[in-house]
Amino acid sequence: MSDTVAPMLSVFPSRALVDENFKVVVENLPPGSPVTLHSLHQCEDKHYWEAYGHYISNHRGTVSVTDDLSFGGTYTGKEAMGLLWSMRPVPGSREGLRLRKRNVCSPLLVNISVYRGHVVEGFREQAPLASSLTERWYMAPGVQRIEIREKGVRGTLFLPPGPGPFPGLLDIWGGGGGLVEYRSALLGSHGYASLALEYFAPGELKSSDLEFNYFETAFNIVKDHPQVMPDKVGIFGLSLGAILTLLLAAESSIIKPSCCVCVSGNHLYPRGGSIKESFFLVISFKVGRINCPVMVVNSHDDQNWATVESSEDMAQMMRAAGNLHLLTRLYYPDAGHLIEPPYTPHFRATKFVKDKKEKVILLWGGQTKPHSDAQEDSWKKILAFLEQNLYSSPTLKAKM
User: Are 154 and 164 in contact (CB under 8 A)?
Assistant: First the structure.
């Protein structure tokens, strides 16, 4: 590299929400130089995650990750966010890891570096030419995080900045259990009062004695909040949470959601399965009762459930009931079960707490590039769907 001017690496913006794009640029390289762009993150469990791409500087001695091709690495081609979505545990890590943010009050710290040549291993043992630290946040400035322990309901409410009132969301995660806050924090950053609901602890699904009205009560906690528009409250579910979302929309006589988003769920569940049989009484025969807009997001390589076939069955029943116009379906080839916010690394299989005494490796499915594309595309369409059905006028996203 040049002996007179040191290479310079910049990331803009260096502080942003996790679903925002950034630009990574390296300058002051000799023209035609092979270099490797590398990202490194140490998660809250102290595991290291990395991604990298191989580039060649242009005639001006510059590499732009947004504009230039990666010729190899964990991603190839012109991929502006490849340094995030293609992250994987560093070689030698434990099997079945999954990257999930627990403390949403702190950022994901990602160190981005440039190395001489096309490097494939041993990044931490080499000195980079230049580095830059970037912050990726789920929670924008001014978003309030409020613990909820009310009427037997457990969860965390995220309120956007300002006095409101805001449209509301009940955010229901899946069969892994526990309290998962990061999607609600991000929804709060987009202008929604979002309640991340906890309804059983990890490994306790079969022993849960929750009743159907637990979810109705949680919905009403959001609806009745003084900073929430009571007639603009929706439900957002993933996996088992998507099943519960459909069930609430179809069966509840107490709550009336304004819209529903169901990611990787279905309208069928085996009797005698999880939680309580009473949760899943003949929902497959009553989807026609749904009278609010519903968006279902499904993948053809979902290795958990036949979600695509389920949505086709739903469409037939809603057509027969005369409410097919309320259903929006998104299909993604080669994506897997865990469709999350954009640039979340893809996990084809991870450890899963089956019960308190047993952990298994669960296959989710998907291929990294198409799965990542599905996450980015579906998130944009989900936000547009929520804005259309919960906001009377366009909203401005919170800025870091």
Answer: no
